[in-house]
Each structure stands twice: as C-alpha cells, then as structure tokens.
Amino acid sequence: MNLKRSIESRMMANVGALLLITVLGCGQKVATSDQRTASKHARSEDARTIATTPAEQQLKDLKGSGQSPLAIANAVKAQHNYDAKAMTNLMKAQGFSADDITDVLHESYAMLPEDAAITLLSAAFDATSITSGLQSKLNLDIGKSTDILHRIGCTNIEIALAAHKVFAADANQIGSLLQKLGAPIADISSSLTTIFSLKLEDTGTLLKSIGFTAEDICRHLHQRSELNSDTVVPLLRNIGFSIDEVGGAIATVFSDKLDKEARDLLAAGYNIAQLAQYLVKKHQMKVDTLVALLFGMGCKEEDVGNALKTIFKLSANDAASVLHSAGYTAVQVANALKSVFQLSAQLSAPILRASGFVAGEVALVLRDIFLIKADLAAQVLRTVGFTTLEIGTQLRGVFAQTAQASAAILIGVGAAVVEIGWVLKSTFALSAEATLSALFALHVHHLELGLVAKQVFALPVATAITLIRALGFGVNEIGSVLKDVFQLSASAAVAALQHIGCVGYDIAVVLKNIFGLPAAAAAGLLHGIGISAMDLGQILKGAFQADGRLCAEILKGLGYEAAVVGQVLAGVFQLGAQAAAGVLQVVGFSAAVIGVVLRDVFQVTAAVASGILQGLGFAAEVVGGVMSGVFNVTATVVTTVGNVVGNAVNTVGNTVGSVINGVGNFVGGLFH
Questions:
Q1: What is the pLDDT of residue 630?
Q2: What is the per-residue pLDDT for 297?
Q3: Cβ-contact 639, 659 below 8 angstroms
Q4: pTM, full prediction
Q5: Confidence tier at 259 by pLDDT (50, 70, 90)
Q6: Closest CA to 9 of 53, 64, 67
Q7: What is the chain's mean pLDDT, rounded?
Q8: CA–CA gap between residue 178 and residue 127 (Å, rounded)
C-alpha cells in the first residue's frame, strides 16, 4: 500500500512538471544532453518518472507496474490529455477489460452510466461486456443495465444474452425485460429459443407467462412457421389458454367459419361444455338456442346438463327448467339431475316440482329412476310441498297402496290427520265411520278423530262423539272432544253427554277433569239435568272426594232441605245423628231444622235430640223450644231438662232423670 501511494505521488509530481513545461513552451529546450541521459537512466530505474514516453508505451509500461487501471489511466490522461473515447480505445488496445474502462470513465471522466456505455460501444465492446461493467463497477441492476443497452442501440438478442450471462437471468426474466423494452414477439421468441434451446410449446408457454395474448402468439406462430389452425389451436390449448382466448385468436388470425372453428376447438381437446360457453360468449347464442343446437347435434341430456352445469354455472334447478322447456320429460330431466348433478331423489324432487312437473310425474320419477318405495316416496313428495291429497292420490295410483296402508304412510311422514281424513274420503271414498275406524287402528288421538269428524265429514256433535265413543274412548276423551274440538261450554257438554247416555257420575268426571269445574259448579250443572240429591252426594264424594260438610254445604246451596241433606249424610257418608247434626249446624241450619232431621231421618228420641243439640252449644231455651216444637215435649219436662242440663240440679223425677241421664251420657260421649 505504501509503495502504491509513493508511485502515485511521484506520478502527480511528474504531471505537475509536464504542465509547467507546457505553459513555458513546448519548443523550449529544457534540459542538456547530460540531463536527458540522466532522465533516461531515471526512467529505466522508475517507470513513474516517465514524462515524454508516447501514451501507448506509457500505458503499456504502467500496466506492468502493478498500478490500478484507474491510476494508470489518470497518469496517461494527465500526461497526454486524452479524452474519454481516446482513452477507451487506448486501454482496450492494451487489453483492459470493459469493467476497468467503465471504472475509468466513471471516476476519471465523471461519465454517467449511459454515456459510459456509449463510449464502450464505440470502442467495439459487446453488450455483455458493457453490461458487466455497468453491473460490477456502477452497481446497476438488470433493469437499468438492459434499459441502457436498449437506448444505446443494442439488439434484442444482444440484450438477452447480456442479461443471461451477467445476471444469470432465466427465460421468464429475459422475456419480461424484452417485453418491457418494447421488443416484438418475434425477437423475444427468437431470443428465448436461441439462448435456452426451447421447443415451440415451451416458447409459447413463456410468451404467455410474460403477458402475450393467444392472438399474439397465434399470429406469431402462423407468420413464423406458417402453421395452420389445426396445429396452432392444440398448442395454444396446451400452454393454458382458455377456449375463449383460443377461439378469438383463430377467428381473427385464420378467419375460419364457425363450424371449422368449433371442430378445431373440439379436436384440440376442449369439451362440449367449454365449446357451448364459447359459442354463447363469442356468437351471442342464447342458452335455450344453444341447448336446441346441441340437441340437433345429437347430444344427450347428460351432455347438455353437464354443459349447463360446468360452463354456464346453472344451478340444478335452472338446468332442469331449461331442459323441461326444451321438451324433456320428467324422467329424462331426473336422469340428468341424477347423473350430472349427482342429486338424490330427495334433492331432485323439489327441482322437478319447481320446473313445473306435477305430483304424478314426480312420483313416476321416484319409482322408476330412483327406485324408491311408497313410504319414502311419500316423504319426498311431502318435503317438496305436494299436498297430502296429491300424495295420497299417487299412493293409490302410482304405488297401488290400500286406504289403510296409505293412511299409515301419510301418518308416518307427518301429514295432518285431518288431511289424511280428506284423502280417505276423497281418494278412497271411505265413510265417516270407516275413516275414523281406519285412523283409530293407527292409534290416532281422540282429538284428531274429533277434528276429522267435524272438519272432513261435518258431523253433528252427537253423531261424532257417538262414533268416537263406539271406538272405545272413555268419558274424559269424549269430554276433550266436546271442549277442544267442538268448543262446547260445560253446560252444553253436559247435555251432549246426557244425550248419548252418559250417567251423572261420568258427566261429573268430565266436568272436573276436562272443564276444571269445582265441586259446587259441577253439582249445580248436574242438579240442573235432574240428578237426585243422593246421586249428587255419591258423585261429590266419589268424583270430587268431598266430605260430608262440603256436600251438605253444596246441597244446601242448591236449595235442598235439611232433611234431604241429612239423608245424604246418613246414606252416602254414613254419618250418625250427632255427626250429621254437627255438619248441619256448621252449614247453617237452625236448631229446629236439625231437630226435625234428628227426629225424621235419624229417628232419635227427644232426650237424645236434646242432648245432641245441647252438646252442639245451643242454648237451653233453644233446645227447649226444639223439644216443645219438634218433639211435643211438655213444659215441665222441658223445664226440668233445661234446669238439669243448664244448672246441673238433680230435682226431677225418675222418668225425667232417666232422660237427663241419657242426655248426660250422650253429651259426655260427644265431647270425650
């Protein structure tokens, strides 16, 4: 490094001396003979002191000195005042590389990259050498380097070779660079083929990848190799162009007729679906017209369906509609849906219905194309929206099912029972009784049977519940039908139940369980239809679990006399005289009335009755009144009884005493 700096320092000193000599006059003698001899000797000792050696010799000598090309060029430039072009030619003649010269042009002559490239080109450096200098010395990338080559007039193949050798650019990069530089497709194709030894199809693929259209490549291939459409079309297809692009290209370049165009496209490997799409786009054919055309060409419904699906992206529903409009039967359309769209019976059926096919046609498809049985067919038909009546008709006609079997199938698919009733009535001509019986055998709910009777056959209430009852339903179910189906009130339901022979107890159960009536309200309705007090007592006790007190209260509220109530208490609730009297008192009967009940119903003696009443808390005078008024007991006895009971004074005779003792014993038993 020190030696290099010393040499460069001396060279600069020599340059300064040369400049001074120039100023003083080149013709002036500046040294003696001895001095020149000494100078020559000095040059032989050190090449850096050269001042008068011709430029070429100086450059040659300095090149062997180990100095950098830049230092050498600077020395020669200073010594001989060479311009850039002369320096370039001089250095090239001495074997300096384009890289070295580029550095000199940039550093010593302050040249811009493009000017340096022009100078190198003028010195007969090739594009690759120039690119190497631009890249290695000026750090230009491939884009800037090739752009400069293009501007200074290098050919496209020269630019391509330079990019490949200097930047190791691949075919795609080179193609893109040339395209950006505006190179024609022929030059790009030729360059890529030459450099990379590409086959025709590979070249076409590269041309496509860098943005050339099918028409560009088609025209190039036709002009370059005089290829016809039979050869060009498969090539264009193989490199990935769509049928639209290829069709448009051959139509423009070769001007073929439509039928030739179509044949070439099919021969190249495009399928009928792709051709169909192309014909519609390129020649504005309507889908319906195209379908007709394809039919005329002998295409099957599967092929047409495939074209509609893959090219026109029609849904199965739309495709079916087009096929139907063209005249295909339901079976044919279903076959296309099954084979092309891979649809099941469940998915095909709604499409067929939406296309306009009726239930009978769809049923035939389900049976003949999808080979499904009646029960599954009914489910499919129901799912797609056919009515229960339509389905029932097909079950009878297409699938040959009986009324009972059809009803079972319809129930299985979730059809409403009333709708099934209509099927049995309209399609199978069953009577109301037969229809209800058939449905009952299928475990149909009583309320649904009621609805069938009401809505399908418009039966009167009495007739409907008679038929339903005959099937074995109980009074609660019958009551539910009356309430929920026929919307009867409780009182109307009582009349209807009575009309078909239901007994009071059964009617009471309905009133309680179905209408939710309390005991009193139910008893009132039953009383209204003539149910006796004793029966009411039994009903209240059994159906409503009423006790004697509640029963007595209800009966009293209905207006029954105490004697009747007492009879019910005795006969239904098995109450004795004292218990019955207590109940009667609680529900509000007077002592006198209770006394009558004790006398007439329970047939107790005055003494017992007096004791019972006194035990219930009635005052002595009240009890005395009952004894006198009800039992016709004399005043003396009444007074005596009252005194004994009220004052506990034993002043009465034996007979009265016996009565008193009896009452005392009774009262004791009542309260203990």
A1: 94
A2: 67
A3: no
A4: 0.55
A5: low
A6: 67
A7: 84
A8: 14
